[in-house]
């Protein structure tokens, strides 16, 4: 088992050669033995890591963000190393995995969005910059038999003056524990050497989608002999879908902060959707989240019947419901919560009946999120559909299992983690196991249509919690967001 370099080095100080700082950080050779360089040894001096600059927080520069040993909030260098080892073990002998960092996305012209790393790249490396490629090269059948190559942008004082600090090549080795770190500019020359003895390449970079990196584009366009390729996502999904205690703790923190913010919102009187939207974003951030996990749904009245209503630019009217689907992100892990409550703070009889019908079914679904129940998300969806039929018929709805999708058109749940819809492609037919994190979100959306009872028309109700599956009982990650009718009404 590899021991991450970060855990055994003197955490607060780096040994750097005496030369200009930009050169020292950009030169991979500055910390390799002279025997490997074919040159004389350099004279080294000790520099405090807190005096250096990085493109993302490290403990020495941001002790208020990261604890010793962590690469990202809550996740240690050791956990990242264990993830890479698990991936290598899951790969066939003589294979490599190639993962490209996400590109910076632009809103328009020179205006860019906040950078968001590719989830698989982040999960394996903790590296949160673009213009990077990670290569996991399997070298044997034992756990830890692999080489971690990381190709990144080197330090460059002039470019950093304009675009912000970078981690640099040396940090890729000394902080992020790459076995071999080099400038991204050398990737084209190094890739053929890495692939020379490889029989299989695991990657989600497809030939029909031109990679942004020229070397990868050349690999897939080459007409000559090259290794076979296979999808990386199904392999990494099986590893990512089971959350570690540290990942669950991050999601619980996000759920706690987000749940309290939504409960606080229920206490107040709102007239505009955009004001409630802004309040939630602010509360998530000011109380410890990185920010919102996604654009929230803040819908009044019949707009709640649009599942992904996100323009949030209308007004609330007395006698209507407010539906909020929102959540914060902590350490890049998300929570996903939906709550529905009356604009007035007091349920009308019809609102109470419809809300209670959804809540009863949601309680049943949450209770099934345990390994001992031996059910899948698809199983819970079928149970939810039957439950909604049973609850709605006494309220006057002419509905059956064959027509319930007219009122409940979406699935009851999905996996969550680094992404709101985590591990894309991982099946909902898989039996839930300890460490799976999912949502349970039944809803009833009643169109203004003569088929349905008049006093429910135009109402939309969804109740959603983020859940971590345990052996015998579910761990509700979003319990601070109240949902019982008595509790909601008591807030005002």
UniProtKB/TrEMBL annotation:
Physiological role: Catalyzes the removal of a penultimate prolyl residue from the N-termini of peptides.
Q: Which EC number(s) does UniProt give?
A: 3.4.11.9
Pfam families found in the cross-reference section: AMP_N, Peptidase_M24
Query: Which InterPro entries has this protein been placed in?
Result: Aminopep_P_N, Creatin/AminoP/Spt16_N, Creatinase/aminopeptidase-like, Pept_M24, X-Pro_dipept-like
**What PANTHER family does the record point to?**
XAA-PRO AMINOPEPTIDASE 3
Q: Which residues form the Aminopeptidase P N-terminal domain?
A: 75-212
User: Which SUPFAM superfamilies does the UniProt entry name for this protein?
Assistant: Creatinase/aminopeptidase (SSF55920), Creatinase/prolidase N-terminal domain (SSF53092)
Q: Which reaction does it catalyse?
A: Release of any N-terminal amino acid, including proline, that is linked to proline, even from a dipeptide or tripeptide
Source organism: Stachybotrys chlorohalonatus (strain IBT 40285)
Q: What does the entry list under GO cellular component? A: mitochondrion; nucleus
Name of the molecule in the record: Xaa-Pro aminopeptidase
């Amino acid at each position: 088992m590899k021991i991450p370099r970060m855990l055994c080095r003197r955490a607060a100080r780096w040994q750097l050669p005496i030369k200009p700082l930009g050169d020292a950080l950009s030169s991979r050779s500055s910390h390799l033995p002279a025997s490997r360089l074919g040159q004389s040894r350099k004279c080294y001096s000790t520099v405090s890591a807190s005096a250096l600059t990085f493109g993302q927080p490290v403990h020495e520069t941001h002790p208020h963000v990261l604890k010793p040993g962590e690469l990202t909030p809550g996740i240690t260098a050791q956990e990242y190393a264990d993830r890479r080892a698990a991936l290598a073990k899951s790969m066939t002998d003589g294979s490599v995995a190639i993962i490209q960092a996400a590109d910076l996305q632009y809103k328009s012209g020179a205006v860019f969005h906040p950078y968001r790393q590719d989830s698989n790249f982040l999960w394996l490396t903790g590296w949160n910059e673009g213009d990077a490629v990670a290569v996991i090269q399997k070298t044997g059948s034992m756990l830890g038999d692999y080489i971690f190559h990381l190709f990144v942008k080197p330090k460059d004082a002039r470019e950093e003056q304009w675009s912000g600090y970078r981690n640099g090549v040396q940090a890729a080795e000394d902080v992020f524990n790459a076995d071999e770190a080099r400038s991204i500019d050398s990737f084209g020359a190094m890739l053929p050497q890495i692939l020379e003895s490889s029989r299989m390449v695991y990657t989600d970079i497809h030939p029909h989608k031109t990679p942004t990196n020229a070397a990868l584009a050349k690999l897939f366009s080459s007409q000559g002999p090259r290794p076979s390729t296979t999808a990386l996502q199904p392999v990494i999904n099986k590893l990512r879908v089971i959350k570690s205690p540290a990942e669950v703790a991050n999601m619980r923190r996000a759920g706690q902060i987000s749940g309290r913010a939504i409960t606080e919102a229920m206490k107040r009187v709102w007239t505009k959707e955009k004001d409630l939207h802004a309040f939630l974003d602010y509360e998530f951030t000011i109380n410890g989240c990185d920010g919102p996990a996604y654009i929230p749904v803040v819908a009044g009245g019949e707009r709640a019947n649009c599942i992904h209503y996100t323009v949030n630019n209308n007004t609330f009217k007395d006698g209507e419901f407010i539906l909020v689907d929102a959540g914060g992100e902590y350490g890049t892990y998300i929570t996903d919560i939906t709550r529905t409550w009356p604009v007035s703070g007091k349920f009308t009889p019809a609102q109470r009946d419809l809300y209670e019908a959804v809540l009863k079914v949601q309680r049943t679904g949450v209770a099934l999120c345990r390994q001992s129940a031996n059910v899948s998300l698809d199983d819970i969806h079928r149970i939810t559909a039957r439950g909604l039929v049973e609850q709605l018929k006494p309220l006057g709805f002419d509905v059956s299992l064959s027509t319930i999708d007219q009122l409940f058109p979406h699935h009851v749940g999905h996996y969550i983690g680094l992404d709101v819809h985590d591990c894309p492609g991982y099946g909902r037919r898989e039996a839930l196991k300890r460490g799976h994190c999912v949502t349970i979100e039944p809803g009833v959306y009643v169109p203004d249509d003569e088929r349905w009872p008049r006093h429910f028309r135009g109402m939309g109700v969804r109740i959603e919690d983020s859940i971590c599956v345990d052996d015998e009982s579910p761990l509700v990650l979003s319990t601070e967001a109240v949902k019982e009718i008595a509790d909601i009404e008591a807030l005002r």
